């Protein structure tokens, strides 16, 4: 199998094949909205053609800067939050070893929350390391990364001097305006651009994701090749054979029948942050106007021993999407101890990956039998190429799904509510009235 | 504030105070079921009195064995899954530094899934370390830990010889029977007992959790003292003033009104696995008979930039429980750069923890205004003592909540379904008929 394979054969009795046919006109309407760029939020459709738009020279510059950082430092601190954090982390965790990254730089994260203990411990940890920084923010005023960058910039300038720090800081930000762009110009930092027409959660294949991914030693050329081939594939295929459209349609059908919640299940701990990235992508794209499927993620088989009971027999509000890898890659064999103390004798000499695979098959059947529709998305192997393909697949499927639901999948108006409160409570100039009002509550 | 503080003042208009009064008789009935041990699953109520039942000599032996392991090895590999994994990991992540555990041993985990890449990379990582192992399994035949223990036992015996390995392996298992008990007796491993009347998800305060927690350098005496005082407090308080009963009652009230899903939100990345432990506790206890609140967890402020949009304005099926720490502990200050490039000038010189706290307050108000009832559970500080208290609080609240819902909160019949399929697909002797049936599907 040399393609991404979307399998709805275990969706169970809640899905009848004629329902896909019945949705065809709606899917075609969505297809036209994407094609003609006239749907809600279409000013943020830059990601759709991005894999073929990204210039080879720019990709080479990312690669070169990553190599420059690798030569200067052991650790790259990636400062970003939300869409400026999750995509890179998803790819890096999927594609580098669990213990010590022998492929490229060690990557640490900052600015992805406001916990001072963590920041303090990170600064102490960096004290005796050679450090480089990639700060990623469209505006430069997002509270979390701005605070982290103040702290880390101070540490870098103390450690390397102003000009030494300059060599080790790379900025990814707006092309023309904003606090971080101004600072980068003033300090002379190497800079990459976040395209205007690509929102945070659709930005993993732009320099936002690609620079940290390259610094971690992952082949970004292969990743973009995978994305380019996905772009072509999901543009050309007949709509009912197109995995993006099928996945989007089926999740909408199941939602219309009362499934409120989708659980994304993976069978490799390295896929944890793919789940986090996916939750932002779908949650932020669809969770608005009091609508949207609630996205949750499960790590198997770990969570079969925690959330497994719920999935099998709790409220029947769930459907499950499994992200699988056909070729597990390793051939670690279960040792033959010559004994059967633990009842595993029948597995001696078999690969661990076989047991994992049979656990997956057994789980899919059990969950389907329990009333949980199961969808399967399988990539041929865990590689940069297929990760690029998978990212593009999910982004396009998400856009289609959001349009089918009748929302703008590219805005996020709800994230302002807590920010306004927080700024007022912190005494930000200009929000005095709200401050008084909140403090009276 | 020197107590755990449960605050339902932001539950919003969905909760009226008379509703708690109206549930009083049901809460008293549940209280009697726990007291008289005559409710469903009451043979697994051992955790209820456990903090005062655990003998000082046994606690001392745990401490002594942990010290012995600390003296012998750098890394302790904890082999376990579900309830034999999540509690220890929750406590260890909460109470040891994010980068390098200067307090005690480095803890790594195995047997918590079936991914061969991870196991292979772990074995390579351990090659040049001094290693000890704590294998935790009631039966010794649970597939994930049994496979990991086969591999790690082989590595240990190659590395240290049979008798050297014996010194470095500690077993936590059944008192009398089972594969692991038999193996421990045969090999002469140091052994701790999992009490018969305490199920996995209620076992964190038994040797299951305490040995790895002690090895990580955490004060288990303080943790048990916290749990003992919680036991006394939640036994004696009038039922409507009792935080366990109030939390349980309110989550049931909200569920009865159509809130299908509870999100546990924490504001410290060290609390991630507290969320995982909590999801098992509540998900496995209540998710049965097609009932139960779906438990999900959020890490703030990280997830305000991903799931925040959904919580603010998606389907109104959510309520949110925040777990907070009154005293953040650190005093990392936001540097004053003398400039205001990033718009943070008004925060210069203030502690990062203040911003985190105001983010929490602003979020709670925004979510409540958006139609998400918000509950707050606040502990005075992040310490072993209050972690012990918090564990006990959640376990008792979970038991009360499950009984209110009308389920047996101590069984997990649904987890057998996938296991039966998996064993059959793997060709386990005795499951030939099921194998044929599954393979025909």
Automatic annotation (TrEMBL), chains A, B:
Keywords: Cytoplasm, Gluconeogenesis, Glycolysis, Isomerase. Signal peptide: none annotated. One of its GO terms (molecular function) is glucose-6-phosphate isomerase activity. The active site is at 284 (proton donor), 419. It comes from the Bacteria. Its EC number is 5.3.1.9. It catalyses: alpha-D-glucose 6-phosphate = beta-D-fructose 6-phosphate. InterPro entries: G6P_Isomerase, Phosphoglucose_isomerase_CS, SIS_dom_sf, SIS_PGI_1, SIS_PGI_2. It is found in: Cytoplasm. It is an enzyme of class 5 (isomerase). Pathway: Carbohydrate biosynthesis; gluconeogenesis; Carbohydrate degradation; glycolysis; D-glyceraldehyde 3-phosphate and glycerone phosphate from D-glucose: step 2/4. Belongs to the GPI family. Catalyzes the reversible isomerization of glucose-6-phosphate to fructose-6-phosphate. This is Glucose-6-phosphate isomerase. The gene is pgi.
